[in-house]
Amino acid sequence: SLRDNSGILLDAEETKFSMGESSLFLVNSRELTYLNNGMKSISADAKYLSTLIKQLNNTGTLYTLLKSQR
Question: First CA to last CA across the chain, in angstroms?
């Protein structure tokens, strides 16, 4: 996923920084990209779950599922 890939790039940039081959600016830039991608992923998951719940509610399935959990 996009978040996993940006995490790999962040790890590589931190390794380069520890060896003196990168700058703090580049590490911070990779961190920001990683965090932004994480937020996008969480937002997409939340939208998906919201849509799924609405669909289940509209078809009456949500009520049946909740009733069976009691």
Answer: 37
